[in-house]
Amino acid sequence: MKKELTRQQYLDLYYYMRLNRAVEEMMVKLFRQNKIVGGLYSSLGQEAISVGTAYALEKKDWLAPMIRNIGALLVKGVRPRDVFMQHMAKYDSPTKGKDGTSHFGDLDNLHIVSPISMLGDLIPVMTGVAMAGRYLGQRIVAMTWIGDGGSSTGVFHEGLNFAAVQKAPFVLILENNLWAYSTPVRKQVPLENLADRAKAYGIESYIVDGNNVLAMYSTAKEAVEQARAGEGPILIEAKTFRRMGHAQHDPAEYVPKEMRAYWEARDPIALYEKFLTGENLLDAKGRKEIEEKINTLLAKERDFAENSPLPPPEFAETGVYCTGDDCHKIRAKWERPIAEVTPPRSSVEAVWTVPGFGSGKGSGGAHAPIHFGDTQPAETKPAEAGKSAVQAPAKAAAKKTVKAVPASASRKARR
Ligand SMILES: Cc1ncc(C[n+]2csc(CCOP(=O)(O)OP(=O)(O)O)c2C)c(N)n1
Ligand SMILES: [Mg+2]
Q1: pLDDT, tens only, 365-404
Q2: Of ligand 1's atoms, which has the minimum distance to the CA of residue 148?
Q3: Cα-to-centroid distance, 120 and ligand 1 (Å)
Q4: Whole-model pTM?
Q5: Rounded distance, CA 308 to CA 89, Å?
Q6: Does some domain include residue 115?
Q7: Could you identify the atom of ligand 1 that is nearest to the CA of residue 185?
Q8: In this structure, are 160 and 82 located in the same domain?
Q9: In a domain, 27, yes or no
Q10: How far apart are CA 342 and CA 319, in angstroms?
Q11: For residue 286, what are the domain limits?
Q12: Is 395 exposed, middle or buried (0-12, 13-18, 19+ CB in 10 A)?
C-alpha cells in the first residue's frame, strides 16, 4: 500500500467502506424484522472493490451497479435513506416502491444507470453510454461490475467485444469472489485468471487484490484515465471472496471452512485500518468519531425510511406505459452542434478522435486481426463519398475516427 493520496482521500475511502458495511448490517436487521421486501444481498468482504473503483470516477462519469455494489452507490452520492427505502419498497424511494433492492438509477444528477437482472447485460448498455458520451462531446467514462459467474454469459463476451472494437471509454470490474450461487469458479471457468478473458478482445486487463482498497483505487484510477484518454476499454479482475451466501436465504454451507477462514483473516476494512494506523492517519479517537458519525447518520436515515409510507394501491397502475414527455423528460446534453452529428452532415469528424479506431487494434496493441489477404481499412474523402474508396496507409487510418464509408468500399476493405 503506497502513500500517495491526500489525508482526506485516505479517510474518505475508510469512511465509505465503513458506511457500506454499516448500511448493509442495518438492512440485515430490517430484513429480520420483516421490513425488507424481496431479496437482500451482501457485499461483506467486498467493500474495497465497490468503494475503491467508484472513488476513481469523476462526478460527470457514469456507473451501473450490480447487487454487491451498494458501496459504489454511496460513493457516487446516493443517500442511505434511498437505499433503505428502495429495499423496503417505500413510496419515497427512488422507484416509489415499484422496484426493490438496488434496482434504481439517477440519470439526471448522479449519472447512475439502474441495474439489469440479466447478468452481463449492463456491459453493452454501459458501452452504449460510453459511446454516447463520446458522440455528445463529453469526456466521460462508464463503469460497471460483473461477477465470476456473470463473466460466462454470452452477453459479457458480445458486450466486451463491442466495447473493444468501438474503443469505448468503458471500465469493467470483474469481481471474482470464487462463487456463483453454489458453483465454485473452478467448476465453471477453466482459467486461473478471469482477466485473461480480455485477451480475446485485444484489450488491457489488470489483476488486483480485491481486499486492498488502495490497490483497487489506484488501478481503477489508472484504468479510468486510460479510458478517458481514448485508449479503449479495460477489464480489472478483483480477487476476493463472497463471505455470505448468495442472498439472505442462503447459509452457504457448501463453502469449505478453511476457505472462509482464509478470507475472513483478510477483511478489507481491518487491513485498511492497520495501514491507516501505521501511517498515523487514523487513531482510536478518529476511528470512534467516524463510527459515531455513521451511527448518527444511519439512525436518522433508517427513521426516515421507516416513517415513509408504502405506495397507495392505485399507484400500481400508473407509470406502466410510456406517456410521452412526462415519461422521458431526459434530454441529451449536447456539447457540440447537433447539426454536426445528425444527417446530412453526420459524416464529419468527431471532436474527440480516438487513435486506432477502425484499424482492428485493441488497446493492448498486439492483437490486430489482420488476416491473410486483408487490406488496410479503407478511408473515403467526403468529396468522393459514393465513388470509390481511397486506400490509406495504416498510420494515417489509425489517426482517423468514425467515417462514413460506402457499402461497396467497406465490403472491399474486408475482403
Ligand atoms: C443471464 C442470467 N443468468 C442467471 C441469472 C441468475 N443469477 C443471479 S445472480 C447469479 C449468480 C451470479 O454469480 P456471480 O456472477 O459470480 O456474482 P456474485 O453473486 O458472486 O456476486 C445467477 C446465476 C441471472 N440473473 N442472469
Ligand atoms: Mg461470484
Answers
A1: 554 444 444 455 544 444 443 333 333 333 333 333 223 3
A2: 16
A3: 9
A4: 0.84
A5: 10
A6: yes
A7: 16
A8: yes
A9: yes
A10: 31
A11: 7-317
A12: exposed
Domains in the chain: how many in total? 2
Ligand 1 pocket, residue 180 CB under 6 Å: yes
Substitution site in 144, 181, 249 for ligand 1 pocket (most atoms within 8 Å of beta carbon):
181
3-class DSSP state for residue 250? coil
DSSP SS3 for 145: strand
Beta bridge partners of 106: 112
pLDDT digits (tens, 9 = 90+) for 263-278: 999 999 999 999 999 9
Whole-number Å distance between alpha carbons of 256 and 315? 47
267 with 402, same domain? no
With residues binned 3-state (H G I as helix, E B as strand, rest as coil), the percentages for the chain, rounded to 5, are: 45, 10, 50
Is residue 50 within 8 Å of residue 210, measured between CB atoms? no
C-alpha grid cell, residue 260: 472462509
Q: Is the peptide bond before 344 cis (omega within 30 degrees of 0)?
A: yes
101 lines ligand 1 (CB under 6 A): no
Ligand 1 in reach of 188 Cβ (< 6 A): no
Task: Tell me, using a 6 A CB cutoff, whether residue 65 lines ligand 1.
Answer: no
- Percentage of the chain with pLDDT > 70? 82
Lowest-pLDDT range, 231-240, 330-339, 376-385? 376-385
Work out which ligand 1 atom sits closest to the CA atom of 117. Answer: 25
C-alpha cell at 78: 446516493
Most informative mutation of 119, 144, 146, 156 for ligand 1 (most atoms within 8 A of CB)? 119
Q: What is the pLDDT of residue 398?
A: 30
Residues facing 175 on adjacent strands: 147, 238
End-to-end CA gap in the chain:
51
- Nearest atom in ligand 1 to the alpha carbon of residue 46 is 21
In a domain, 322, yes or no: no
Point out the domain boundary residue: 317, 352, 374: 317
Nearest to 272 by CA among 52, 82, 63: 52
What's the 217 CA to ligand 1 centre distance in angstroms? 25
Most distant CA pair in the chain, distance? 75
- Atom 13 of ligand 1 has which residue's CA nearest to it? 180
Q: Is 210 in the pocket of ligand 1 (CB under 6 A)?
A: no
Give residue 381's pLDDT. Answer: 44
Is 118 close to ligand 1, i.e. is its CB under 6 Å away? yes
Distance CA 328, CA 342 (A): 21
